[in-house]
Q: What sequence folds into this?
């Protein structure tokens, strides 16, 4: 059985699968489209909300350094993603990369993980978008009835109609075509980045240097807890992490990591890119660099406008402008948040449907979902199915406590991709690589260590829920995926599926 569990799918076979007419996606994206996708999905909840939370609770004005630390962790992973995406330009992102390097069972695990990550991420962002939209409607004098505003209706029934409607509308856009999705995203991202630049430029005039003192507040020990809500590292070693001080910056980095989630979604669109070998690295690394620079600039401005102890946790950017007597800017920021979260939701939904599509094309999920639309050349079946399910979830559930599952799912994918780069360099040194991760294996190993550190700072409760989801995934794989896999039907095993490099050839 072990040989079947770790059978790998040849890179050449993965690429040939993309050429089958009924399973082929339309290639329409450029490097600019990919960069816009990345910026569109990264800039969202993090820049509009997390800045105030981590400044007030963890790092003080040094929150800018926390964004830098989280950005470095993501950059290490991005280098690995860029090599894989340019070498294996196939839909599925980390799932496809794992199938080519680690084997079928690890690929299934990461694919199952990504389905959870993107589904919950889409639902959570849709609910957040609904909250901002209701706020804007209230300001305009339009009030939704309680039973359509979600959560607690007058008769014990509540459905978030705005969150569900957003998901369904974005589902329709994704079915119609990637190029339309790209055009919509470009317009929305332009508005969102403009709002962010307004915050940076206008806010710079209200900075008071005294608000930066102390830049790194004195360390304060956090009370050790024995519950599952405590960080896993605390329960494992009995160590109570500290807020503020240098360690507070790293604690904050594990929180603001959520603000960077999304650049890996760019890799899921590799199969729909005109020139993936050239454009995928540019899109992944370019979007990450742009967003990191914007995050650092915003955090510096906001903590300079208002002392970190007075920052709002719910809406730090908008409230900071209100304290300076400029409510107009606060309204513009709320509008930017609504616009920004729209693209985040759409691109997360895009990522999930592409992973689901890739898994069904390989037979690990029903092949019914791997047929593309005859006109639009998009995976319309999984897009419609997942869009409806996520709309229902977003309508009935707040998912606030499940949001951290998105973090651990993404971090887990980072670990797998970094390990996959090292393994594929050894097993397939002959593969053409348009982009090569520098200093292998040191960069991938450093990426794994940095990622694991952030994972250990997540609550033990998150780890428990993640483990439950993985157990369900194992059951589905052994009951369906293992026997319906295309590799199982072709009788391939690990030895046959992996084409070794040239005899005596270097592992480049």
A:
């Amino acid at each position: 059985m072990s040989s079947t569990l770790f059978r790998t799918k040849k890179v050449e076979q993965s690429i040939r699968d993309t050429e089958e007419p009924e399973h082929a996606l339309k290639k329409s994206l450029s490097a600019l489209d990919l960069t816009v996708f990345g910026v569109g999905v990264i800039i969202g909840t993090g820049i509009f909300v997390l800045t105030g939370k981590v400044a007030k609770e963890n790092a003080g004005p040094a929150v800018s350094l926390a964004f830098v630390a989280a950005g470095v962790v993501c950059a290490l992973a991005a280098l690995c993603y860029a090599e894989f995406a340019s070498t294996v330009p196939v839909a599925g992102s980390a799932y496809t990369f794992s199938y080519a390097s680690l084997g079928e069972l690890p690929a299934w695990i990461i694919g199952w993980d990504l389905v959870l990550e993107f589904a919950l991420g889409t639902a959570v962002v849709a609910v957040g978008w609904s909250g901002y939209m209701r706020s804007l409607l209230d300001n305009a004098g339009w009030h939704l009835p309680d039973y359509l505003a979600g959560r607690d209706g007058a008769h014990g029934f509540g459905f978030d109609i705005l969150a569900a409607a957003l998901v369904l509308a974005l589902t329709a856009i994704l079915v119609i075509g990637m190029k339309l999705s790209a055009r919509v995203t470009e317009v929305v991202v332009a508005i969102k980045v403009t709002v962010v630049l307004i915050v940076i430029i206008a806010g710079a005039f209200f900075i008071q240097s005294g608000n930066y003192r102390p830049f790194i507040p004195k360390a304060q020990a956090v009370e050790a807890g024995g519950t599952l809500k405590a960080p896993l590292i605390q329960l494992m070693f009995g160590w109570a992490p500290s807020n503020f001080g240098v360690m507070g910056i790293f604690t904050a980095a594990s929180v603001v990591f959520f603000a960077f989630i999304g650049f890996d979604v760019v890799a899921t669109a590799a199969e729909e890119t005109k020139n993936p070998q050239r454009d995928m690295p540019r899109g992944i690394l370019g979007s990450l660099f742009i967003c990191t620079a914007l995050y650092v600039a915003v955090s510096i401005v906001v903590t300079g406008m208002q002392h970190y102890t007075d920052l709002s946790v719910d809406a730090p950017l908008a409230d900071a402008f209100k304290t300076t007597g400029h409510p107009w800017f606060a309204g513009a920021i709320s509008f930017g948040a609504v616009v920004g979260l729209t693209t985040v939701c759409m691109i997360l939904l895009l990522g999930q449907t592409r992973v689901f599509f890739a898994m069904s094309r390989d037979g690990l999920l029903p092949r019914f979902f791997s047929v593309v639309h005859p006109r639009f050349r998009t995976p319309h079946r999984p897009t419609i199915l997942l869009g409806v399910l996520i709309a229902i979830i977003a309508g009935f559930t707040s998912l606030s406590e499940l949001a951290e599952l998105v973090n651990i799912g993404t971090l887990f994918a980072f670990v797998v991709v970094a390990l996959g780069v090292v393994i594929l360099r050894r097993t397939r040194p002959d593969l053409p690589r348009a982009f090569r991760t520098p200093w292998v294996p040191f960069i991938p190993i450093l990426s794994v260590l940095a990622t694991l550190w952030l994972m250990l700072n997540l609550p033990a409760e998150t780890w428990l829920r993640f483990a439950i989801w993985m157990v369900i995934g194992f059951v589905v794989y052994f009951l369906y995926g293992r026997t319906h896999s295309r590799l199982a039907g072709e009788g391939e095993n690990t030895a046959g599926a992996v084409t070794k490099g040239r005899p005596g050839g270097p592992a480049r």
Remarks:
- DSSP finds 21 helices and two strands in the chain.
- Strands lie at 220-221, 242-243.
